[in-house]
Every structure is written in structure tokens, then in C-alpha cells.
Amino acid sequence: MAGVDDMVCFSLYAASRSTTQAYRRVLRPWDLTYPQYLVLVALWTEGPLSVRRIGDRLALDSGTLSPLLRRLERRGYVTRGRRSDDERVVDVSLTEAGEALRDEMHEVPRQIAECMGIGIDAARALMDSLHELTARVQAGNEATAS
Amino acid sequence: MAGVDDMVCFSLYAASRSTTQAYRRVLRPWDLTYPQYLVLVALWTEGPLSVRRIGDRLALDSGTLSPLLRRLERRGYVTRGRRSDDERVVDVSLTEAGEALRDEMHEVPRQIAECMGIGIDAARALMDSLHELTARVQAGNEATAS
DNA sequence: CTCCATTGACTTGTGCACAGTTCAATTGTG
DNA sequence: CACAATTGAACTGTGCACAAGTCAATGGAG
């Protein structure tokens, strides 16, 4: 009845929501959401990025990112500005406050690791499976988009 | 920097969204969302359920389920009614149209399996890892709720 | 140079997800 | 019985996620 495939998807759905829940708790002191944190991580590790490039990293479109970035800007963590040599592109940069968060939040990954209670080998194996799965499913999604 | 733990969570997040995307495509003929489909699967396999019990199965609260069930009711797939011996409880039952979907949609799991392209052994292994992870993280989430 | 297709971001509208609140029905306790 | 505590559902408000549409800037092709 409910195929194994259905069940794999539900496992993913449930696991994803429970880890997001864990982040919600850990990020509460900064009043940041998990997607907002992901954007900050991207900027911390790669420097200023266009909206498009952030979207490539996180597989999110501008419909999701525009309001999210507006909130981060309003709170003083990032600035946005159109690129002078191509006015279509909006570059997102960290402010000093945004940079400062990097140090402030350096314990976050450890806290998350703690509540996942997973060894590094198991973590890598799981990530490999998930990446492979995501790649296949995304390929299928894009193929049928045409 | 970005710990392996962060990366596991992002893998989950990305994989979950890509499979939801696959469902969106497969479910399009019926104009159903993945969470709506999950509720129907629960009712197909277990018969009438209270809102609370559906929430237990899917780890969703009434804030999510109430509007979702209202949409399914408005479209004629389920009915809702307060239980006579305990007026607090709302039981959700399939209509004939809702039952009929079960046959109509029997190809859905196969279609999902196809675009996941994963063997049954790999699927079971992945599910086991995900269930274990979810259980640990949920335990951590509930512990800190107190 | 002139169109025209493409690109990048934004906006609009719908539907989850979830915290927090409200409220009535029920249950437990003195 | 009275009454406090609990339970089940719904509602409110915020923030993703994403489809679809708009619009200005850009980059060809003729």
C-alpha cells in the first residue's frame, strides 16, 4: 500500500522538520530562522554574493530570498545594492554586525551536532546518500519541467 | 567552519524539498499538495481518525491541520464531525470521492520510486538512519521544551 | 542601430509549519 | 457537587517555499 518510496519521502520530511526544529531552539537567542542562518553561513564562507548566487547555493529562488534578505537588511546584518556594471544584479554583503555574528554563533554547529548525536562516519554516509538522492530527484524534476 | 552537522542538516533540508517537488509534479493532476496526500494515505490505511491522531502520525499540529482539512473537506474528499461522546474530538472520515482517489492514485508511489531511482535495500538503510536521527533530535527537542 | 530573447530581481497569491492564544468539553480532586 | 487542571481543536500572526507574472537591464542577431 504505502510504498517504501512513500515512506522514504516521509522519513525525509519528518527528519528535516525535526532538525529545523532543533535549529529553531538553538537560534532563538538571535531570533534567526534556519534559512536566514543558511544565508549568513553562505556569506561568512564566500563573501559578498548576488541574490542569484545565494539561490544557487541553497536551491532557493528570489521569491523566497527577496523578503528574507529584506528582513536581514532591516535588522542590520546585511546590505543590498545593485551592481554598477550590471544593474540587474543585487549584491548582498555582510555589515559589521553580520560579520560579528560569525564569532558569536561559533557554538551553533556543536550544539546541533550534540542533539543529533551522530558520529562523523555515519554523518558522511548519510550525507552521501542524501546528495545522491537529491541529485537524481532534481534531475527528474528538471527533465519534466520541459 | 560549516561543521559536518550543519551540512547533514542542509542535506536533509535540500533532499526533503526536492522530493516534495517531485510529489508536486506527480500530484498535479489531482491538485493536491504533499501534506494533503499524506493525510489521505493515513485515512486510506487506518480509516477515520481524529485530528489529534492524524497529527500524531504526521507530527503536525492542529494549526497546520485545521486549514488543510478544511480545504480537503471543501473539495469533497473528507468530512469532519465532532464525536458525540466527546465533543472536543473532531473525527475525519473519507467521503466516497476520497475513497475513490485511493484507486485513482495507486500509481503515485511507483512514479515517486522511479524518480528516486533507489533500490529497496538502500531505501531501507536510508530510512533506518533517518528514523534514528529523527528520534534522537525529537528527544532533544522535547527535553529542552521543559 | 533596432528588435527581441534572456536574465535577475521583485511582487503576488496560495499553502504549509509552527509558536502562542483562546475556548469549550472533559476529567480529576477535594 | 464545585472547581481547578487538562485536553482537543481552532484561530492569529510570522516566515518560509514556490508558481506565475511584471519589469528593467542586458546581450545578441539581423
Layout: helices, strands, pairs:
Two copies of one chain form a homodimer.
Chain A: H1 4-27, H2 34-46, E1 49-50, H3 51-58, H4 62-74, E2 78-83, E3 86-94, H5 96-104, H6 108-116, H7 120-145
Antiparallel strand pairs in A: 1-3, 2-3
Helix pairs in contact in A: 1-6
The structure holds a DNA duplex (30 and 30 nucleotides).
Q: How would you briefly describe this protein structure?
A:
The structure is a homodimer of 146-residue chains. With 146 residues, chain A is mainly α. In chain A, 70% of the residues lie in helices and 12% in strands.
Structure overview:
The structure is a homodimer of 146-residue chains. Chain A is mainly α. Chain A contains seven helices and three strands. Chain A has helices spanning 4-27, 34-46, 51-58, 62-74, 96-104, 108-116, 120-145; strands at 49-50, 78-83, 86-94. A three-stranded antiparallel beta sheet of chain A has the order 1-3-2. In chain A, strand 2 and strand 3 form a beta hairpin. In chain A, helix 1 (4-27) crosses helix 6. The radius of gyration of chain A is 18 Å and the shape is globular. The model of chain A has no long low-confidence stretch (mean pLDDT 93). The interface between A and B is large, with 58 and 58 residues. The structure holds a DNA duplex (30 and 30 nucleotides).
Structural class by helix and strand composition of chain A: mainly alpha
So how many helices of chain A? Answer: 7
Instruction: Give the terminus-to-terminus CA distance of chain A.
Output: 31 Å
Strand content of chain A: 5-15%
Strand order of the largest sheet of chain A: 1-3-2
What portion of residues of chain A is helical?
Answer: 55-70%
Mean pLDDT of chain A: 93
Low-confidence stretches of chain A: none
> Which radius of gyration of chain A do the C-alpha atoms yield?
18 Å
Major beta-sheet overview of chain A: 3 strands, antiparallel
Largest interface: A-B, 58 and 58 residues
Global shape of chain A: globular
Q: Which oligomeric state applies?
A: homodimer
Report the strand count of chain A. 3
Can you write the helix and strand succession of chain A as a string?
HHEHHEEHHH
